[in-house]
Every structure is written in C-alpha cells, then in structure tokens.
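Readers of this paper often ask what the protein records in our data store actually look like. Below, we set out a record of this kind in full and without editing:
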Amino acid sequence: MASNEDGTTSELREAFDQFDKDDNGHIDRGEFAQLVAILDPGMPEEQVSIGFGEIDSDSNGAIDFAEFAQWWENL
C-alpha cells in the first residue's frame, strides 16, 4: 500500500508533467508562464521572470522536478 507521501509525490509528478508540454523533463520559461497564468492570471511578466529565477535554483534556464517539488511545498 502506498503511503500518503507517495500519493502526494505521484500527484505532484502528474502536475509537473501537465506543464512540461514538450515532455523533456523540464519546465522552461514559457511553460512556467502558462502555469502562472492559471495560478495567478494577473501576475505581471516581471514577477513571472523573478519567480522563475527563484525556482530555477541551479540557474540552468529550466525547472526540473526537484525544483518544482520544492517550490510547490513552499506555496
């Protein structure tokens, strides 16, 4: 039987995969902008860019699942 944590991770992976439109294992800036448009439609582009930079902790220009999970935990 899966633990609640496993279920949460599975749901989080599903959410990540929904926004990873090109299925490359990363959420790029454009995909992140689409995610933010759903969560906070009025967020200014400058704030979207700042948020992306904060989540992309390794500054490689993409958000991987670990970065996404950490960000989601802190929402």
